[in-house]
């Protein structure tokens, strides 16, 4: 029973590892779970990240203070919060999927955009997927290698427990 549990847990973790290796990342805007706030340098944050199609943005904030609106470039530059494209604000732990290869612009209304509460995100095409049928493709082999390393590390760590109990 215990061994079965361990195996089940292992399979769940394996699924998570594979999912993480495949992409579809979530980006915590500003670098943390509660960082949609005026004291964060979002230009610095977004230039350190790579955004790919289907990735998610997570905005964590005090909904009584701030909001999140998708706007066009002009509105982003000038902090215009009327006639926005999308209102992303819900409960203050809000997500948004980047579905196209383009630049996205987000601001907070209520004047906070003028204090720097705005971010521009440049979405790139999905990186080439690891494919076992093209082993000569350099970037694919690197990705495969990464998955193998993760699996090996994980197996080394967990297998003693499974052998012990199962
Ligand atoms: C944010 O960081 C960038 C790069 O380090 C810097 O050039 C810019 O002046 C900073 N912006 C603010 C508002 O501090
Ligand atoms: C951006 O949106 C504003 C407000 O809706 C609009 O007046 C302006 O024409 C738009 N600019 C562009 C370049 O689409
Ligand atoms: C955005 O949506 C939220 C939740 O539905 C709502 O409370 C808020 O008033 C909206 N903001 C704007 C600027 O429309
Ligand atoms: C990898 O292979 C795919 C499909 O053959 C190709 O489109 C892609 O450009 C290749 N990538 C590299 C880095 O060679």
Automatic annotation (TrEMBL):
<dbReference type="GO" id="GO:0009055">
    <property type="term" value="F:electron transfer activity"/>
</dbReference>
<dbReference type="InterPro" id="IPR008972">
    <property type="entry name" value="Cupredoxin"/>
</dbReference>
<keyword id="KW-0732">Signal</keyword>
<dbReference type="InterPro" id="IPR003245">
    <property type="entry name" value="Phytocyanin_dom"/>
</dbReference>
<comment type="function">
    <text>May act as a carbohydrate transporter.</text>
</comment>
<comment type="similarity">
    <text>Belongs to the early nodulin-like (ENODL) family.</text>
</comment>
<feature type="domain" description="Phytocyanin">
    <location>
        <begin position="26"/>
        <end position="125"/>
    </location>
</feature>
<dbReference type="GO" id="GO:0005886">
    <property type="term" value="C:plasma membrane"/>
</dbReference>
<protein>
    <recommendedName>
        <fullName>Phytocyanin domain-containing protein</fullName>
    </recommendedName>
</protein>
<dbReference type="InterPro" id="IPR039391">
    <property type="entry name" value="Phytocyanin-like"/>
</dbReference>
<dbReference type="Pfam" id="PF02298">
    <property type="entry name" value="Cu_bind_like"/>
</dbReference>
<feature type="signal peptide">
    <location>
        <begin position="1"/>
        <end position="23"/>
    </location>
</feature>
<keyword id="KW-0325">Glycoprotein</keyword>
<keyword id="KW-1015">Disulfide bond</keyword>
């Amino acid at each position: 029973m215990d061994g079965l549990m361990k195996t089940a847990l292992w399979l769940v973790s394996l699924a998570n590892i594979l999912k993480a290796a495949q992409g579809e990342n979530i980006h915590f805007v500003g670098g943390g779970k509660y960082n949609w706030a005026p004291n964060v340098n979002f230009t610095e944050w977004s230039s350190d990240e790579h955004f790919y199609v289907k990735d998610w943005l997570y905005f964590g904030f005090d909904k009584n203070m701030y909001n999140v609106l998708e706007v066009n470039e002009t509105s982003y530059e000038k902090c215009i919060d009327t006639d926005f494209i999308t209102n992303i604000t819900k409960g203050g732990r809000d997500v948004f999927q980047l579905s196209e290869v383009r630049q996205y612009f987000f601001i907070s209304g209520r004047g906070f955009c003028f204090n720097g509460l705005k971010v521009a995100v440049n979405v790139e095409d999905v990186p080439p997927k690891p494919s076992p049928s093209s082993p000569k493709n350099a970037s694919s082999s690197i990705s495969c290698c990464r998955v193998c390393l993760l699996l090996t590390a994980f197996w080394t760590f967990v297998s003693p427990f499974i052998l012990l109990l199962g």
